[in-house]
Amino acid sequence: MRKVIGFLLIASFAFFIVSLVARDLWVDDPSQVRTLGQAAIGQTIPQSGAANTVTAIVVQFRGLDTLGEVTVLFLSALGVALLSGEFAGRGLSELFADDGGFILHYGTRLVLPLIALVGAYIVAHGHLSPGGGFPGGVLIATAVFAVLMTNAQQRLSTRLMAVIEGLAGLAFVGLGTLGLLGDKFSFLANVLPKGQLGYLFSAGIIPLIYAAVGTKVAAELSTLVTSLTGSDRDGGEDHGASSIPADTQGGAR
Amino acid sequence: MISVSAVLYTTSIILILLGLYGALTRKNLIRTVISLDVIDLGVNIFLITIGYIKDGRAPIYVVGSGSLSDQAARMADPLPQSLVLTAIVIGFGVTAVALTLIMRLYEKRKTVEVSETRGLKW
Amino acid sequence: MSITTLLLVPLAGFLGGLALAALVPGSKSPRTSGAIQKFVAVAGFALLFVEALATRSSAGVSSIELWLFGFPLHFAMTQLSWYFIAMVTGITLVTVLFSLQGLRDNGKYPLYYVWLFAKTFGMLGVLLANDLLSFFIMWEVMSWCTYFLLQQGGEKSKRAAGSYLVYAVVAGMTLLGGLMYVLFHVGSVEFDAISKAFAGFGAGSVIVALVLILIPMLIEAAAYPAHWWLPSAYANAETGISAYLAAISTRIGIYGMTFFLFAGFGLSVINIASVNKFVSVQEVLMVIGAFTMVVPTFTALFQHDAKELMTWHSIGQGGYMIVGIASSTTLGIAGGLFHVFNHMAYVSLILFSIAAVEYRTGTTNLNKLGGLIKKQPIAYLGMLFGIIGLAGIPPMNGFVSKWLIYRALILSGHPFIALSAIIATLGTILSVYKLIHNTFLGQLPERYNDVKEVGWGMRLPIIFMMAVVWFTGIFPGTILSVIADIQKSLGLEAIAVTAHGVAPSMGQLNMLVINIVFIAALLVSWLIYLAAGKRKHIGQYDNYAAGHFLDASIPYNYNYDFYAGMDHIFGPALHKPPVKRFEQSIVAVVAGASEYLRRLFTGNVTTYAAYVVAAAVVVLLALGGGR
Amino acid sequence: MVSPMILIALPLATAFLIVLIGSRVAARWLALAAVALLVGLAPFWFADILRNGPMSIVLADVLPPLGIAFGLDALSAGFVLLIAVSGLLVLLYSVPYIPHAGQFEGAKKAETRYYALFLLLMAGSFGLVMTKDIFNLFVFFEILCISSYILVAYSQEERSLEAGIKYMILGSIGSAFMLVAIGLSYRVAGSLAMNDIGLALAAAPHGYALLVAVLFTLGFGIEAAIFPLNTWLPDAHSSAPSSISAVLSGFVIEVALVVLVRIGISVFGTLMEPALGVLALAGVVVGELAALGQKELKRTLAFSSIGQVSIMLFAFSLGTQSGDWAGLGQLLMHTGAKSALFLVSGYFILRTGSHEIESYRGLARRMPAAAAFFSLAALSLVGMPPFFGFFTKFRIIEVAAAARSALGYAGIVVILFGTVIEAVYLFRIVRVLYGGAIEGARSDALVGIEAAAGADGATPFADGATQGALANAAGSLASAATPTRADLPALAWIAVAGFVALVLVGGFAFPWFDQALQPIAAALATL
After folding, report:
1. Quick check: is B122 in a domain?
2. Is the ipTM, as predicted for this complex, more than 0.90?
C-alpha cells in the first residue's frame, strides 16, 4: 500500500517535472559558459592570482560560502561529539575492538606519513591544481582513521583535536578579518600579494585559507571518527570549572 | 542525437526520484538516510551538469599550454563545480549527524524501524 | 472631565489594587491588606457613584477623545448610557458594602475588589464608548475581566468560567467580524458616519451588520439559545459576585441591543432591517425574547440550588427586556428599560438574602434548607419583597415594568408573545414560591437551631434594597421620567409619566392607588382575622403529614424535591433540551475535528516525507503545472 | 561604524574559541559577551539604515554578481535586532536551565558545546536575513538547520532523538529541493544573485519558473513550517530543551518565513501567493485544532506555533504592503509571547518532571511569577485588547477585509475561529495552573520542591490564608514581583520578563512599534 502510494506520488511528481522543464533541459546542448561562470573565468587571474578557477571561486569570490561550509563541518563534528557523549567504550567500538595484527599495525604506520604527505600536498596546491583544503583534509583524516581501525589500543585526544580545529577556525575568520583591516575594507578580501601565476606562493590568502581549511577538516573528521568509535583518550569529562552556580541549584527534581 | 547533458539530466532526475521513492517507502531509518544520500547524489550530478558545455575543459589555467584567453574560451563553467563542492560537504555533515542520531536512538530503543520510531505522534 | 473620571477611577482602582497587593502581600499581613483593600473599594465605588449621579447634566453634551494605544477612542455620555452608568455604579457600591461583611473567608479572595474595579472599568467603558472600535475594545476588556472575576471562586466556578470564556470569545470574535463588516462597508467606525451610511443601505447589508453585532449582545444578555453558560458560571461564583453579575453585568447586553437598535446605527435601522412583515430583525428578536422568557423560567422550577434557581430567573427576566425593547414601541422600550432597573433591584435583593442565609448555614441547597423565617426575619422579608417584584405582582416595582411590556405587546399586535410572557410569569410565581418556601417556611432542620440573623453590615444593604424595590413600586415615575428623557434624546416618542405611574394618555397606571388598595386589603383581612377570634399560635413542628405528627427529630420535609411530579413530566425536555444538545454537538464536532486532524501527524517520518511530495504535486497541479 | 560582517564573524569566531577553550564557564561568558556586543550594535545599524538607506557589503573585494550579494536593509537590520535580543535573553535563561536540561553522560562537556551550537544557530539566522545570494542563502540555511537538528536532540532522551531524526530527514529533503531549484535558477539566469534570478525567471517559460518556485518554496517552507510540511515541528519544538524551543518558535521559523516571503515576492513574483494563502488557512485550522487535543504543554504550544505562523503567512500571502506590515506585527508579538511561554514551560517541566498539563495542577502556588508570566503571554497570544496580540490580530483582519477577495474573507472567519480555539486551550492550561489541590502521583515531585524551598528558610506557603491567596489567578500576578525559591531562577526570570515586557510594551506603545515596522514591511518587497 505504502509502496503503491509512494510510487503514484513519485510518478506524478516525475510527470510534472518532465512536462514542465523537459523542453528546456533536454533540448539544448550548451556550448557557452553562463554569465557568472564567464566572469569567474575572466576574473580569476586578475583578482585572485590562482590558476584553479574553482578554487578562486570557492575560497575568494564565494569565500563566505566556504566559511559556512567549514562551519557546517564544524557543526557536524560538534554534533556527533555531543550526541555520542555516551559512546565511550560502546557504540561502534566493538567493531573496532579487533586488533589488526602485526602486519596491519606496521603497514599502517608505514603508509601513514605518505598519506598525510599526499594530503598536505593536495591542500597546498589547491590554488593550482584540482583539490584543496577539503579533499586534502579528508585524506589526512583518512590516515588517522586507518590507525584507529587497525589498532584497538590506539587512542586520540579529542581535546587536542578541538584545540586544533578551534585554532584553524579562528585562523579562517582571522584571515577574513584581515581583509576588513586592509585598505579594501572588505571581509575575506585578498589583501596579500598575488605572486606569479602557477607558483606555489601565489594567490594571496588563498593557500593560507586552504591550509586552515585543510587542518580544520582533518581535525574535524578525526574528531568525528574518534567520537563514533569511542576511542577518545580523554573520556567524557569536562576540563572547565564544574560547579553549578549557586543560583541555578533550584532545578532539583 | 542524444546530447551528453540530456543523459546526465535524466540520470540525475531518476536518481533524485529514486531517492525520494526510497525515503517514502523504506521502513528502515538507515535506508532512509541512504535514500537521502541518493537524492544528494542526484542533485550533485544535476548541478554539475548545469556547468557542462560541449567540449569543455577543466577550468584550471595551466602555465605554458597556450594563451590564457584560449584556455579560458574552452573552460567548462566553474561555478556549479564550486557549488557542488560545498553541497557535498554539507551533505556529508548532515549524513554524519543523521547516522549518529540513529545510532543513539538504536541504543535506546533497539530498533531502527520507522514504524516503531513513532513515540511522538498526534 | 467627568467621563475621564468615570474611566480613570476604576482603572486606578484596579492597577492600584494590584500594586497594593504586590507591595503588601497577603502572606505578611492579611488583615491590614484586607482592610486597605476594603477601604479603597468603598471609597472608590462611592466616588464613582457620586460622580455618576453628578454627571447627568453632561449627558448628551460631554464627550472625549483618547489617543489610547495609537487609536483614537471616542467616549461620550448619553442619556441612555447615563441610565446604565448610574445603575452600574450604584449596584456595585451596594454590592461592595454588602461584601464587606458578606464575603466569607476574606483571605480566599484577596483580589476580589481589584477585579471588581477592572470589571467596572470594562462596563463603564462599553457604556461610554462612542465609536465601534472603542466599543469593541472595552467589550473585550469587560469579557476578560468577567472571566477573571469568575476565577475568584472555587474549582466549580473556575470550570464555569472556562465555559463562559468560550462564549465570550465567540461573542467577541463575532463582534470583531461585525466591526470589520461595518468598517469596510462604511469606511468608518464613528457612529455618526455609520448611521448616515446605513440610512441609504439596502436591507441585506444592514441585516448582516446588525446580526453580527447583535449576536454578541444576545450572548452577553444570555438570550435563549446562548444562555447555557450563565447558570453554572454565576451560580458557582461567590454570592456577592453572583448578585453583581446577575443584576447588572448581563444587562450590558441589553444596553448594547438598545444602543445598536435605536442609537448607534440610527433610528431607521430597525425599519430597514426587515425582509417583510414577518421576517425582520425585530421579529426574530421578539421570538428569541419569548423563548428566553419561557424556557429558562420553567427550567428554574426544577433547580435545587437557590442561586442556580435565581440565575435561571435572571436569564428569563432578560427575555422580558428583549421583548419589550424589540417591540420598539414607546411603552415597550420604556418597559424594557425600566425592567432592567427593577430586575437589578430585586435580583440583587434576593441574592443578598440568599447570601445571608448561606453566610449562616453554609449552603444554598434548597433540599437542605427550610424554616428559617424566625431565625433570619430580615433575610425573609428581603426575599419576600424580592420575589413579589420578580413575579410582577403589585405593589412592587416589577409589576410596573411587566405591565408596560404586556400592554406594549398587545397594542403592537403580538398576542402570542404576550401569551408567552404570561406563561412565563406563571412559571415565575411557581418557582419563587419554591424558593421562599424551601428556604424560610416549613420545618427548621435541627442543625440550624443556632442560626442567627446576619450582622448589620449585611442587613442594611438588604433593607436598603427592600426600600428601593418598594419605593420604585410606589413612585415608578422617578425612574420612568429618566427613561422618558432617554426616549426623547434618541428621537423616539417619550412615554408620558406621572409620579406614580403612566399618564392617562398612554393607558393609566397609578401605583399609589394600587398600593393603597393593596394595603387596605391587607388591613381588612388582618381585621377579619383578628375579629374572627379563632387565632391560635402554633409552633413550626405543630403539623402533621400522611397521618404522622411531626417533631423536631423527624420533620417531614416537604421541601425535598419540590415539584418532583412536574419535574418527572417536563424535566426531561428541560434538563437536556435541544439547545444543550446542539451545544454539545458543536463541542463534539470541534473535538472530533481536532481528533481527526491530529491524525495527520502520524509520527511516521516516511509519511511526512510523502506529505512533502504530495504538497509539491498538489501545488503544481493547482497552479496549472499541467499546461 | 563597525562592519555588519561582525554579525557573522563574531559568533563564528566565538564558537571556535569556545570549543578551543573547552570550559563551561568560559563558554557562558564568551557567548553572553559576544551576543551582548551584537545587541549593543544592532540598534545603531538599524538607525543608520533608516537614515541612509540600505547598506550593501562587498565581500572579498569582489562585486556581485561574481561575489556574494550581501548587506543590511531595513528588514535584515530589524531582524538582526530581534534575533540578537531574543538570543541574548535565551542565553541568559540557558545559564541556569541547561545544566538541568539533559541527564546524560558527558553532559557537562555537552553544555560547552551547547553554547557553540547556539552561537552558530544565531550566525545562521543572521546570515539568512542578510544575504541576497541564493546559494549563500542555502549555506546559511544549512547552518541554521543542522545546528537546530543537534540542539533539538540535545537532551538525548528517546523523544528528542526521534524528533531530531524526523526534523533532519524532512530538512534534508527540503534542502535537496532547494538545491535543484538553485541549479535551475542558475541555469536560466547565469547568476546567483536573487535580483538577476528574479528578472530571468520573469522572462523564462511559465512552467520552468513554476517548478523553480514550487521546489524552492516547498524546500524552504519545511523550515518555515508551511502547513503540510510542518509535521516535524510539533515533535521538534516539544522535545527540544525549552530554551531551544523558545528560539525555534521565537525566531527561527519566523526568520525562515520572512526570508521565504521576501524571496517569493522578489524572485517568484506573485506565482505562489494564492497557494500559500490556502495552505496558510489550512495551517491555522489544523494547527489550532490539533493543539486543542494535546495533553502535553509543550506540544500544545508547538501546535499553536503552527497556527500562529500560518496566520502570519496568510497576512504575507495577501500580497499587499499593509498585509506584510500586519504580518510583521504578528511576528514580533509571537516572538515575545511564544518565547516567554516556552521558557516558562521549561521550568514547569523541570519542577514537576512531567510534560503533561494535568500534572501542573495548582503549580501557580509554587511558581507564582512563572504562572503570572504564562498568563500574560497567553493573553497576548489570544489577543486581549491592551496587549500586543490584539492590535496585530486586528491589523491582520483589517487587511484581510481590505483585500476584498474570497480568500480574505475566508481568512477572517478562520482567524476568528482560530482565536476561539486558542483561547480555549491556552486558558485551559491557565486554569490548571491556578486550579485546586494537586492531585495524583505528581504531587510527590512538588513535595520535593517544597522541601528544597523550605530548606532555604523561605517558607512561602506557611499559612493557609496565603495558600488560598496565592492560588488565585491575580494573586500570583501580584506576587510576580516577589518570586519564591521554587520559582524561576533570577536569570531565567529576567529572560522571561524581557519577553513578556515586549508584549506588554508592544500593546501600550503599539504606534511606536507600528512605525518601526513600516520601513521593514517596505523592505520586505524589495531586495
Report:
1. no
2. no
